[in-house]
Specification:
Helix content: 40-55%
Distance between the termini: 23 Å
Largest sheet: 2 strands, antiparallel
Number of strands: 2
Order of helices and strands: EEHHH
Radius of gyration: 18 Å
Strand order of the largest sheet: 1-2
Strand content: 5-15%
Number of helices: 3
Oligomer: single chain
Structural class: mainly alpha
Shape: globular
Length: 86
């Protein structure tokens, strides 16, 4: 099973001009969009239920948070495809 990590959470571009030929690229190091969204989901779960109650429900908080994040990325891709007419 392949996972869609959503790409970088905070990509940034660099351009070099002048003596060197112009180069444009995106840096993709660091946190993925999946990690970022999972962190937000985890925060919401713990805030809503409290850490003790969230743990007692039987599911790992991280497992639930990453499942929510993966669903968000899947929905993002679906909307992007719909916007392109696919």
């Amino acid at each position: 099973m392949t996972h869609d990590y959503g790409g970088p959470a905070f990509p940034y571009g660099r351009e070099w001009n002048g003596d060197r030929s112009a180069i444009s690229r995106w840096e993709e190091n660091g946190q993925t969009l999946l990690d970022y969204l999972a962190g937000l989901a985890m925060h919401a779960i713990v805030t809503r239920e409290g850490p003790r109650e969230a743990i007692e429900n039987g599911d790992s908080i991280a497992n639930v948070a990453y499942s929510v994040a993966a669903d968000m990325i899947a929905e993002k891709r679906r909307r992007e495809d719909a916007a392109k007419g696919k």
